[in-house]
Amino acid sequence: MTALADDTHYLYQIRSRQCSSGLGFDGYHGITDNVKRRKSEHFDDLKRGKHKSEKIQAAHDVGPSDLEFWIHTSGTREEMEARERLLVSQPNMHWNKQVGGGPRRGMTAEAAMECLRPKDKPAPAASMPPIGAAAAPALPVSGAAAVLLATAGSGVLASYTLNKTVFAEDPGVSDDERDARSAGRAGTRLGAGVGVAGMLAAVGLAGEVGLSGAAVVSGVSAIGGAVGGGAIVGASIVIAAPAVAALAIGTGVYWLRKRRWGRK
């Protein structure tokens, strides 16, 4: 694993496990360069009943053991500010009072999208275990584009291997199976070889027509559901490392094809 740079920042969320909307749809979102310190500051204030967020304090007062601290992702400060800007797109959204964008704020949605545009040379992957809970990606409609833009790269070898084994052409199988394998092969190529463009295409095929925020959420939900999960699992697939994405997208689209569009 690549070591994290000294200037690495983290996008985190505080939420109650009693919330049913799912990660990213509720709770308080923030950015820090020191996870342990920031978590301690939040929970120390909560224990004293003096947290600056009335919504977090109210949730703590109702069920202190239900509050969870999650790490969504990590990267440069600008990248994390851009993601927070898309996750918290308006005042008083979720448990946040202000529009996202870190301490500097003022970032427009267009600037946030541009900040997250895949570069010619993707930055090294970086991750960190969550503090107090398992890591998982956030997926509100407002942040769907940011989720889709999170992964770029190539898993060509993984795609080639899968397409020659798991999704290999076989004239002896049924039409349904042959079509599903074809969809699986396309999925591995989308996930591994085309990077972000492939992710967009896979999600667009699985979800509603188009690539609006709602369609993206619908798409990753469908892909996640195809492999036994939901929107969060689908988001995990979309932002996974390219080789993992090749397997996950290929498998998800394969089962999605069999389940939803199989011949009767």
Structure explained in plain terms:
It contains 11 helices and 3 strands, in the order ββααβααααααααα. The protein has 2 domains: 9-136, GIY-YIG endonuclease (3-Layer(aba) Sandwich); 156-260, no CATH class. A 3-stranded antiparallel β-sheet has the order 2-1-3. Helix 3 (77-87) packs across helix 4 (109-115) and helix 6 (156-164) runs antiparallel to helix 7 (175-193). The N and C termini lie far apart (47 Å). The chain is mainly alpha-helical and 264 residues long.
Give a topology summary.
Layout: E1 9-16, E2 28-32, H1 35-48, H2 54-62, E3 67-75, H3 77-87, H4 109-115, H5 144-148, H6 156-164, H7 175-193, H8 196-206, H9 213-226, H10 231-238, H11 242-260
Antiparallel strand pairs: 1-2, 1-3
Transmembrane segments: 190-211, 231-256
InterPro entries: GIY-YIG_endonuc_sf
Keywords: Membrane, Transmembrane, Transmembrane helix
How would you state the average pLDDT, rounded? 64
Morphology call = elongated
Q: Low-confidence stretches at least 5 residues in length (pLDDT < 50)?
A: 120-155, 194-241
The number of distinct helices, counting runs of at least 4 residues, comes to: 11
User: Got a strand count?
Assistant: 3
Could you name the CATH homologous superfamily of the largest domain? GIY-YIG endonuclease
CA distance, first residue to last residue: 47 Å
If classified by CATH, what would the architecture of the largest domain be? 3-Layer(aba) Sandwich
Q: Tell me the helix content.
A: 40-55%
* Helix and strand sequence: EEHHEHHHHHHHHH
Structural class computed from helices and strand pairing: mainly alpha
Keywords: Membrane, Transmembrane, Transmembrane helix
Transmembrane segments: 190-211, 231-256
